[in-house]
Structure to design on (401 residues):
């Protein structure tokens, strides 16, 4: 089998919902990051790209169902470049990486354009069609931004609780209190801000300029709050339970807009791109469990990915775990038995944000750059997914040997 490598990764800053990127269509964000990625490898003949795969959790609006195809056309890439869009909710773009790496492994491709995008600001409301013309009952619009919608009545009620209530159930099961969640959330902000100031994101993030509609230039992630402390977060009210709740807006990831992209390729891709690989895709893992415990699914996914890579947690020096909620992140860290210090050392989604389709590639690109900066060999990128799934990828730093 051919080996699959990540050669480059880049993303937009992540804007807050209704914020600086809310005037940008998701297909425009996707096209912008594609143009940026292509422009960073000026020696590339774009006719040599085998396929484009984008992750997107919505697709109901301006993404036009297949945002991968929309993005490459808008970016001016050849019309002969095929494109497909993957939807595994929060794990969509990481799933795209797993799919592309398999294509490379078996020799079906040498260079794959990967991406992910989400505009949670612009996610539409949808109106279900009626079963007969001119019904007499009222119809309700469904918000496609996040979570369940148009739920099948055959689904057990225990499965269809909100993501926040599901997290409350998980933290009860795992014994994770409010104080620890707030401390973990504050840590995310307190790591993200100095990482930006130290230049760790200079090669990972490209600014977004105002578009013709409106908006302002966005240079860095919009939801980082450097002054966050456990004490300040402790003052926020709980959202999903009033009596014994612990989940707040401060220890849950915000809703965001943004896009990410990366090159995956075989050894041959080094010559096509004119650049050396950052890391090898060494292991992949997917797992699923009861939908209400979705936040715990990365535990088994990462364990499976490590087994495929032939290593154990004792070999891992860096972890990028998407912080959907502080409670579920802590539950995963506890189950793995790893040092919290190796997790999200440049900040996580609680500070940076979580535009669903773009997050998987964000954590993978950050992991590759962290390994490159430290010279350490092994890292894990893992993400939880609504409705009870998790994905993980193991990277081997190719510059550490």
């Amino acid at each position: 089998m051919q080996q699959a490598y990540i050669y480059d990764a880049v993303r937009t800053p992540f804007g807050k919902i209704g914020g600086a990127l809310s005037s940008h269509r998701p297909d425009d964000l996707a096209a912008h990051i594609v143009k940026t990625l292509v422009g960073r490898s000026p020696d590339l003949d774009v006719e040599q790209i085998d396929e484009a795969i984008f992750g997107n959790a919505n697709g109901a609006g301006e993404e036009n169902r297949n945002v991968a195809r929309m993005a490459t056309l808008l970016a001016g890439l050849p019309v002969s470049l095929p494109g497909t869009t993957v939807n595994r909710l929060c794990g969509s773009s990481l799933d795209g990486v797993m799919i592309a790496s398999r294509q490379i492994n078996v020799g079906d491709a040498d260079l794959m354009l990967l991406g992910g995008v989400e505009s949670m600001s612009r996610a539409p409301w949808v109106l279900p069609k009626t079963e007969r013309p001119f019904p007499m009952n009222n119809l309700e619009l469904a918000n496609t931004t996040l979570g369940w919608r148009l739920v099948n009545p055959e689904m057990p009620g225990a499965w269809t609780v909100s993501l926040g209530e599901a997290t409350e159930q998980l933290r009860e099961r795992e014994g994770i209190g409010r104080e620890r969640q707030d401390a973990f959330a504050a840590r995310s902000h307190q790591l993200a801000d100095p990482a930006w100031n130290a230049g760790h994101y200079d090669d990972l993030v490209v600014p977004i300029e105002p578009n013709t509609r409106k908006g302002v230039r966005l240079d860095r992630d919009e939801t980082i709050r450097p002054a966050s402390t456990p004490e300040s977060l402790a003052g926020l009210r709980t959202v999903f339970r009033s009596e014994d709740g612990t989940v707040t807006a401060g220890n849950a990831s915000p809703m965001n807009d943004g896009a990410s992209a990366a090159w995956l390729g075989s050894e041959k891709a080094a010559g096509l791109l004119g650049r050396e690989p950052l890391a090898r895709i060494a292991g992949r893992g997917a797992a699923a469990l009861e939908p209400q415990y979705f936040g715990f699914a990365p535990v088994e996914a990462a364990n499976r990915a490590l087994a495929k890579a032939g290593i154990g947690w004792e070999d891992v020096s860096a972890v990028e775990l998407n912080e959907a909620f502080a409670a579920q992140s802590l539950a995963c860290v506890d189950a793995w038995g790893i040092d919290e210090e190796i997790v999200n050392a440049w900040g996580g989604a609680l500070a940076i944000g979580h535009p669903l389709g773009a997050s998987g590639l964000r954590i993978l690109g950050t992991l590759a750059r962290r390994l490159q900066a430290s010279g350490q060999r092994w890292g894990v990128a893992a993400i939880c997914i609504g409705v009870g799934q998790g994905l993980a990828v193991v990277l081997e730093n190719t510059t550490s040997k």
Remarks:
- The CA atoms of residues 260 and 343 lie 21 Å apart.
- The radius of gyration is 20 Å.
- The longest strand covers residues 256-265.
- Residues 5-121+254-396 form a domain with the Peroxisomal Thiolase; Chain A, domain 1 fold (CATH 3.40.47.10).
